[in-house]
Structure formats: structure tokens, C-alpha cells
Amino acid sequence: MTLSLVLVVAAALFAVGLWGALSQQVVVMVMMGLELMINAVILAAGAFWWFTSPSPDGQVLLLVVVAAMTVEMAMGFAVALLLHRRRGTDMTDMAGELNR
Amino acid sequence: MTEVVFWVAAVVSVAAGVAVFRTDSMARATYALAASFVAVGVILLAFDLDYLGVIVILMMIMEMAIMALFMIMLMGMNPALMPMSMVHSKRTATAIAVVVFLGLATAALAIPWPGRSGAPAADLTRSLGEAVMGSKMLVMLTISPVLFATIVGTLVLGHPRDRYQRYGDDLDRARPDDPIEGGVGR
Amino acid sequence: MSEVTEAGPLWAALAPVALLALATVGAAVAHTQAARARGEAALSGVGLPFVESARLLRQRRRVTVAADRVLWQVAIGGLPVVAVLMAVVVPVGPVVLVDSPVGVVWFNAMDVMLWALWWLAGWGPNSAHSLMAGHRFLGLALAYELPLMFALTSPAIAAHSLRVADLAAAQQGLWFAVWMPVAFLVFLGAAVAFASWGPFAVAAHADLAGGVLAETSGVDRWLVLVGRHLVLAAAALMAVPLFLGGGAGPLLGPVAWTVVKAVVVLAGLELVAGRVPLVRPERFAEVGWMVLLPATVLQMLVAAVVALGGAS
Q1: Nearest chain C residue to B53, by CA
Q2: Cβ pair C296, C151 in contact under 8 A
């Protein structure tokens, strides 16, 4: 177990999440992709902390990432609910007003 | 021992991550994601991050339990009943994901990472607590209003009824008119 | 830091058996009460757990159409496993299986695991009643979980530690149950809730044709029923170092006192829970958020002020 190997695992998780976030049509599935990407960030941050500088500061970074994820989830669910209620849809393709 | 734990957890986390998008069942997809997070939590435990590892496991199980409800509630079409492709721009996405993975992995392997400076504290949980309540307090002070704003914003966006529906047009109803009776004071 | 030693692998193998023994006592109490309620001789209930076990273990399993076998089995097998994992951080006298520095958070993580397990037990069989019961459990979980977290935090604040053995050692003068009654009661209530028992038996109650039990049979049903009592037993065991002074007590040794206190708490949970009617989760949600949550936050404030006073 070296830093490089852990980072490769994190890169794999990140790429899988990215694939999901880009390709999925359903909002909740897109959120799952985002979650996987944040999962990779958590892993990478933990590895950096452990292998380079195990001071408390790195742990705070992890806490921040976890908090960011809760915000992403809560807001994502709220928007998904709103979309569902207003449009009766759960697909990203039908919620494109940010494009225009 | 740590080595074995790490590799098992690493394989599980990536495999479960792939399973999220390969399975047809909404519940299986959600809990595959939960398994991926638990595996990453276990890796954190292998880094002696007791508190953060357990917190990641705790939060993610909770989150996925709720997420499964949203999946079932919001999925208009059930891919388990009607097998179909629920993806768009699959080729582009695959290309981008592969390029990103190759780039990140090459960087991870090629960059000469610095060695370890300093040693972890004897009690990591305590040192985290002291950092949060001491030198890094500003970070937490910033996060808490963000979290609070999230709670308010989520309720505003997500709640189907507003206070006028509950308390009447002039907000003069003594008891709120809720679809579910009961609770406190009613 | 209080001295506890980690037990060897032999004890680890015995731990599930010991927890099962404790849970059997709890189940016997519950069945005795049920027998009395039916107007039968109370003592006839003592043997019922064994009779029922023997019947279920011989029964042939029934599987529903298009069931999600994998997730269903995960849920059913997970219940006893999570109960044991809950109990491993609890010191019994001077011995503990896993001397985790974050034992309290670990216990919390395991009780959150039950969110997933109860819901999956409802999802697995592809049955409407089961799924509704699983959904209903999550509704209740949203109401009890935050108060439970704060109830767990209060003793940890007072003891300046998340290690369960330190919590027990911090109560040499006065039990936390005495000066943290709110946290203690919320903990007990939440224990009943996450075991889906008594007034909070929303995941498995007769009003929904048995909920997650509607389609389980044979050894599966046995595992769910036993898992429930195991979870209650683990929570009762945890209440001892959290609120009841751990193994402290006169005459008997610390091991004996831990067991005695755990049995008393467990019997209390089984008895009280059997006498209170089912609570509707959608109504209880408001109680959880409007009453219990502020109450436990205030409890935490009291604990923090006292801990500060003791530290200075």
C-alpha cells in the first residue's frame, strides 16, 4: 500500500463516478455519480494525509469534504423533488432551462 | 494485515461503484453505492482515522437508506420491470471518463510524491477535535452557516405546502391545517 | 484512561453466544408477559422462545415471486451480525472485545446500519405490506435518530472521551442516568425504536400483516425475531457503561454487576414495550423534532457545563 496505489484506486472511483454523472439520465442516478466522485476525493484526501503529512489539518479537510457531500445530497434531493412535482419528470434532459 | 484489508476494500469499493450503474434494480444500485462508501470508510480505518472512518460509514448508510426512498419515489419508469437504457451521450461520457482515469492514474504513478513529514498524533480523534475547536475553528464556523442555509433552502425548495396553506391566507388559523393530524399541540 | 484488556479470539467466538443468552432472557421475559396477557400461566411463556425456535428452524422456507433474494438475505442475516457488532465495544467488567477509541460513534454507526437492514428486509420479499413497513421504519428513524445521537453525545461530553470504558470510569461518583435522565430515557426509547419493538414496532407489527415478517418463514423468520431481541440486548448492554456506571457496585464483581444491570435494563425494555400501544411514526415525527431534539440538546448543554466545571 503506497500513496500512488491508493491514488490509482481513487482515480478509478472518480472515473466511474464521472462516467455516471455524465451519462445517466435520471437525476438521482446523476447524484449517485457525483457521490462516487466525492467518495474518491475522500479516499484521496485520506491517503494524502496519511502518507505525506499526518497532522490534524488534513483531517479537517476530510470533514469539509463530508460536509460538502451532505450539502450536495440535500440540495440535490430538494431540486429533484421540485422537478418531479412541477414537471412530473426525473430526467436531466427535460430540465434544461439552465442551457438557455 | 493492513495490506490485505486495503486491497479487499479497494476492490470492493471500485467494483461496487461500477455495479451502481450496471444493475437494473434501484435498491441494488443504491446499496451498491453504500457498499462502496463503507469500503472507503474501512480504508480510512486502515489509515488509523478511527473517527472519520466510522463517521463516513455512519453517514453514508444513513444517506443511502434515504436515497433508496427517493429513487423509488422519483423513478418514473422502473428499469427492473422494463429493461431499457437510461443513459445519454454514452460514447462521450465513456471517452471522458477513460481519459480522466488515465490522466489521474498516470499522474498518481509518475509524480514523485514527497515522503512523510511528521508523525500522526497519538490520539487522532482528540487532535482533530482540538484542531476543529482551535486553529481550524474558522473552517467550522464557515461550514455551519452553509449547513444551516442548506436546511432552510432544502425545505423551501422541497416542501409542498407553504405557511399560507397551513395557517390560512391571513395566517390567522389557530391550528395549522396539515394533511397529517397529530404530533405536538394538535 | 481506564484499564480494560482486549479479550482474545476465543472470547470473540463466545461473544455471540453470550449475547444470544442475554437475548434469550429478554425473549423469555417478553413471552412471559405475552402469556399473562393471554390469560395463560405466566411461566408457560418461559419455554416459548425455545419451542418457537425449534418450530421455525425445522420449518421449510417459503420464497415469494420475484423476490430480491440477495438484499433480502443481507437484511435478514445482517440483523444478528449488527447486534453483535454493537456489543463488541462494550466492556464487560475489565474485558472488552474491541477497545475502540471511538466506541460510542461505532455503536451509533451500527444502529444506523439498522436503517438499511429494516428497509431492505421490507424491500426484499417483493410484498406491499413488507415494503410499507420498511418505509414506515425509515419515517420513524428520521424522528428518533438525531435525539439518539445527542443522547449518546451527552455522556461522551461529560466523560471527555468517546471510548466506552472511559465513560464507565467517569461515573465513579454519580451515574449519568441520575443527572442525565433525558439522555437516558431517549437512549432507551431509541433502543426500542431501532429494534422495532413495542410502541415503535413499526417495521414488524400486526397492523400491517406483520410488516417485514409478513413473508418471512423458517430460519429467516427465526433470524429476524432473534435479531430483534439481540439488538435490544446489545442496547441494554451498552446502556450499562453509558449511563449506569459500568461494572461499579458493591459485593459482586464488575462482570456480575454489568450482567445484572444489563438484564434489568433489558427486562425493563421488554416489559414496558409490551404494554404500550403502537405509535404512528408520522405523528411521532413531530414529537421527535419539536420535543425530544431540543430536550436532548439542552441535556447536552447541561453535560457540557458540568464537564467544564469539573475540568476547571
Answers
A1: C106
A2: yes
